[in-house]
Amino acid sequence: MKLGSGPLIELRRLHRYFGQTQAVQDVSFEVAAGQVMGYIGPNGAGKTTSMRILATLDVPTKGDAFVDGFSVVNDPDRARARLGFMPDYFGTYANVNVWEYLDFFARAYGLRGKTRLAALDYVMRFTGLDELAEKPMRGLSKGMKQRLCLGRAMIHDPPVLVLDEPAAGLDPRARIQLREMIRQLAAQGKAVLISSHILTELAEMCDVVAIIERGRLLAVGSVEEMVRRQVRQQRRVSVQVLGEIAPVNAWLSSRPEIRQVHANGNTATFVHDGTVEAEADLLAAMIDAGFRVAAFGSVAATLEEVFMQVTEGRVQ
Amino acid sequence: MSAWEPASEALTRPEEVGLSKETSSPFAAGRAAAASWLERLEAYLTSWGERLNPILVKEARQALKSRRFISTFGLVLLFACAWSYLGVAWMGDRIHFGAAGSVMFYGYYWILAFPLLVVVPFGAFQSLAGERHDGSHELLSITTLKPHQLVTGKLASALLEMLVYLSAVTPCLGFTYLLRGIDFPTILLVLVYTIHASLGLSLTGLLLATVSIERHWQMVLSVLLVIGLLAAFAGALSLTGMVVLEVGLPWHEEEFIPVNLAVLTLFWGSFALSFAATAAQLTFAADNRSTALRVAMLANHALFLGWMAYAWHLSPDLFLFIPLLTLGYGYWAALGMFLVAEGPDMSHRVRRGLPQTLLGRALFTWLMPGPGTGYMFVLANLMVLGALSLLGVFVTRSISTRPTMGMVDWQDLAHFGCLGFLYLAIYLGLGLWLIGLARRRFAVPLPVGVLLQAVLLILACLVPLVPYLLYETGPLRYSMTQLANPFWTLAAVLDRDIPTHDLISLYIGLTLAAALVFFLNLPRVAYEVMRVQVAKPRRVVEEEVAERPPPALPAAPSSPWEGEGVARVE
Ligand SMILES: Nc1ncnc2c1ncn2[C@@H]1O[C@H](COP(=O)(O)OP(=O)(O)OP(=O)(O)O)[C@@H](O)[C@H]1O
Ligand SMILES: [Mg+2]
């Protein structure tokens, strides 16, 4: 299979309505080979809906999506051969063990003979399932099931992976392992679209993130870029003083450019809109006001803060 | 796909690639000669196994461990043994003199027919319905497996299960043959028909399983299916009982073989139609889900006409035209309701395959998806059916000197054919037009469209009927107020219950209505006919060029893990 020259994943003005609900509205983005894109948004934002369209399980009301240049509407068969999808649920079969399950999907993807056995072998080892080969599927724990699901999604070596909340329900160790697996997959040149609510995890493994809320795409960009943009707009500062914190709190709250003042122990944190210069002036003013400042510094913004700022938290 | 070429032999499982465990054992050395053909056999079997339908492989693995299969199989064995003892004991000495074989056979038939006609079809329904409900079917549907492969796989595993049950009672059936009272051809014919019935019922189960993925609907459907299966079981028992215990099979009748051939070919015709329908139900929405179905409809129609012509050839009787017309019109009425309710949009994917030449467009446009082409397709078929029937009626009248079996007159039949055609044209056209209107405001899925037409028909029959029943005091006779009711009108035509002047106004009214409805639908039909082929996207053309067999060159390694150790995440 020869890959095209364009992006491996492309959503082009995608819309999907369910009756009155506008689950996805005019969403467009691209993911290139070797890129991991985090897809984040509050519950009901339209992540699963758009991912299902990309996985050829649903059809858009308007717009189109492309996998390696092939429309998921008009060439679903070609799109499918290039795409592995891990849904947020897990379809099981009774009386089937782990190896048989993967073997079945390998056959369903048209892998035959030695090629199939090699694929199975690789995937079982990659996902660490080789010791569970004989285990019946119904007896798997959540984490094992997630591994098996990932294994199934990558059994035909697709250049595109679409993972819907793969980290949900995983313990910390398993999450770290998942992160490593996804990094490896990206290093192999795959394009990965991954949705998650665990933003600290996502920030570490994604090159780019797309934020969606109520069906609309609010922001797309690299994690650093987003955080930088956030920092430019408002800065979170933490200040530690010796002595009573209450007067500091009152002093800070009285200033118009400062918001969200919280005091804890002898540390106060607050948010202000402004530049580094404004921050330096503020420190001088505090010292002038007689506070004994022990530490003063801006706190790095996180993806979570970006998320909280960009989204409004309303559901439809 | 070459990405998974094994890096080394160490990556493959030895027992899976034809290196049997036996040959690698130290004992194998002494049996080198035997091993070579064994190896070849095994390699052959393995390569054959690779080509098997994946669903069949999976379901066979599942079945071997499933409680349903094991218990059914055990019960079949148990009951077969029990009947062997009890039956023989019960018949005592009669076994040497009477027709013991047929009684014994009938007992075994009970034991075999239940799993074949009830357990296997219900299992097929349940496995597909369950997989559709819990999402595992979705995951399978996005693999490169085609919908028809999926249906074939399910049917093949049903067939496999049937054969296992059959093989469990085969020794018993052989035993009945040794007793007197039943001959080998009868046993064979009964089994052939039972397996056909089982396959047909399994396909019906699969078709029903595609109707809904909602649990409550599936429950309703499964109850209906079980009732149907039990009825089929009872029917098979009584039919087989009649054949085996009472009348026997009329082997010496001249028409015995043609009649059986007719039954079997018509069975396979409707099997193909149901198969196409099941596969279409599982096909991606933007794909062409109609053409295969329409071809199957056409084939069935031709088959039906062919056997009717054969029957006419055997005994040219006017009476034949009643089943010909009612079954034929009924067939197209039922299918037509589905065809005119088809979705109105045509995806680019389907448009790529539209016929382009003038001849191709004239002939094949009617097979392409769309409610308008569907309407024309049904009308064309009805015209063929009606015209052939009329021709047949006239020819029969001119050659036949015998009195007819029924009391039908050739004129009644001609009226029946013409008026029936007009009714179908009116109702299907009206359905098409109304669904089109409704679609301007709402989404009308196919089942809703079918339901809409059924409601329309019922209303058209009931609304004039109720006041008539309320105010008419005399005997219930056909009146022209009921002309919207096709059933009563057509029955009255055959019964000669309509005076000539009424008949004339009926013709005028219905022809005008049919023409009006036809013109109302003309824009829709024209719109669908005018659609032309669209070009393939550049990426698809690129891919098709790449797929053409390249000049033989050694394949370059293309996967990132080829030839290297696998990094494993701990
Ligand atoms: N089959 C459906 N029928 C009707 N509405 C639907 C359907 N699927 C999704 N929706 C609606 O579409 C919207 C988007 O849902 P979606 O599942 O895509 O959200 P999500 O971003 O995946 O949320 P979560 O984080 O909770 O998984 C929701 O309002 C949901 O109710
Ligand atoms: Mg979701």
Structure description:
The complex is a heterodimer of chains A (316) and B (570). Chain A has two domains: 9-229, Rossmann fold; 232-300, Alpha-Beta Plaits. In chain A, 36% of the residues lie in helices and 28% in strands. Chain A has helices spanning 47-54, 76-81, 98-108, 113-126, 142-153, 172-187, 199-205, 223-233, 246-254, 276-288, 303-310; strands at residues 9-18, 21-31, 36-40, 62-67, 70-71, 83-86, 160-164, 191-195, 208-213, 216-222, 235-242, 258-264, 267-272, 292-299. In chain A, strands 6-7-8-3-9-10 form a six-stranded mixed β-sheet, sandwiched between helices. A four-stranded antiparallel β-sheet of chain A has the order 2-1-4-5. In chain A, strands 12-13-11-14 form a four-stranded antiparallel β-sheet. In chain A, strand 9 (208-213) and strand 10 (216-222) form a beta hairpin. The longest helix of chain A has 16 residues, at 172-187. The mean pLDDT of chain A is 88. With 570 residues, chain B is an all-alpha fold. In chain B, 72% of the residues lie in helices and 0% in strands. Chain B contains 21 helices and no strands. Chain B has helices at residues 21-24, 32-51, 54-65, 67-91, 94-97, 100-133, 136-141, 147-178, 184-209, 215-247, 256-281, 291-314, 321-339, 348-352, 358-364, 371-399, 410-439, 446-471, 486-494, 500-530, 538-547. The radius of gyration of chain B is 30 Å and the shape is globular. The model of chain B is unreliable at 5-30 and 559-570 (pLDDT under 50). Chains A and B meet through strand 5, helix 2, helix 3, helix 4 and helix 6 of A and helix 2, helix 3, helix 7, helix 14 and helix 21 of B. Bound molecules: adenosine-5'-triphosphate (ATP) and magnesium ion. Magnesium ion is lined by residues 47-48, 88, 164 of chain A.
